[in-house]
Structure formats: structure tokens, C-alpha cells
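Hi! If you just cloned this repository, the fastest way to understand the data is to look at a raw example. We've pasted two of them here, unedited. The first protein comes first, obviously.
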Amino acid sequence: SALVVLNVEPASSGFEDFGDAIWWTLVSFTTVGYGDLVPVTPLGRFAAVIMMMTGLAALGSVAAILASSFGEEDHEAPDPDTSDLVGELRDLKEQVAELSRIMTDSTGVFDIGHREDSE
């Protein structure tokens, strides 16, 4: 874009050398747009539009990459320690169920062995 603008813009527009064209390209690409150098010909303005869109796309891509990196933690595989805990909880649940079966008497009443015979 800098070469296009340098070649098509008249010196009266401010683009006197390649340095001016590079300055304008960087200012446009970064979307700062100081306005100290402005293309005035149709081809120069077209190059400016392309450069501005490129700058916006580049900055948008960087923003999208950063935003997606914040959500990566939510999509990671489960922690191996978590699966171990789930297995241990299942074992404990089975043990509690077995203890409940053992402590239930023939009438179906849970008996913890604290009854006194009152005969």
C-alpha cells in the first residue's frame, strides 16, 4: 500500500518520499489515523481503505485469539484426580448400602443395636 500511495499521490498531498508513505501505512494499519497524511486520489483512497480493513482484521484476530484463550480452561479434559475421586465415591456408596443391608433386621427396620429388652 505504501508504494501505491507514493506512486499515485501528488507531492502536494504530503507524500513526498517513501518514508512518508511508510508512516501513513503504519498509522493506517494500526487504526490510529493521525490525519497528517491523507490520500486524495481515487486509487490512493482505495489503497487506504484496503490498508484500514487489513489493520482492523489484524487487530480483530489478535483480540479473538486472546478472548478464546481465556475460555480454554473450560474445555480441558477432566483432571485425573477427579476421576479417582468419583471412583472412591462409588466405592463408598456401595459400602454404605452394604452396611445398611447388614444392619436392617428381618422386619425391615434399621437396627443400630441400641435397644434394651424390656421383658
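Ok, and the second one:
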Amino acid sequence: MQEPESVTVSIFGKEYTLRGAADADYVREVAAFVDLRMNEVARGTPVASTARVAILAAVNIADELLREQKRRLEDQVTLEDRSNNSPVSWCGRWRETVPQKPVVIPCPARDGSYK
């Protein structure tokens, strides 16, 4: 097993040594993102402590993350709804639930034609 790599980064003017399994370049990228967000918050918040800046930056980052997760989930649900309401999908579900009888049900092929 590979030993976790140590990476020294600068966040909001302080040096931190971080260790973990992630690639050093990725750790630096994450640290740069946090540093950027903390500096953005500090510019908009007069006379704030480092702890307050860090918490506000964390809240902003968490807000973005949760909004993105919600958007992706809504997109996934929309795609599933679209695929579940397509004629091809509907016929497949119908055929699975109806007992097999010698009845021919015309359902469109994936290209939209009836075969």
C-alpha cells in the first residue's frame, strides 16, 4: 500500500501540510479553490476573523455543491421520465406486465418505425 503523500499548500495566507491518498496536484487545486473562496468572502466581509471567513466560505462552497447535486438529480429524473414515457419503453413495460397471449401488439422500433 502506498504511503500518503504530504503536500504543503497556502490557504488564506497560512501554510498547511496536508496528507492523503489524492494526487499532489489535485490537493493543490483544491487548496487553491478554498483560498480563492476565502479571499472572495474576505473582500465582501469587513473586519472578519479568519474563522468567520472560513465558515462563510465553507457555507458558500456547500451551497454550490448541494445546488449542483440537486440540479443533476433533477436532470436524471427528467431523463428517466423521458425514457419511461417513450413508446418503445412503454411497450416494453406493457409486454412485461401482460400475460403472454398470441396477440400481436405493434410497437415502434428504436428508430420510430413499426416492424
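That's it. A detail worth noticing about the second one: DSSP finds three helices and two strands in the chain.
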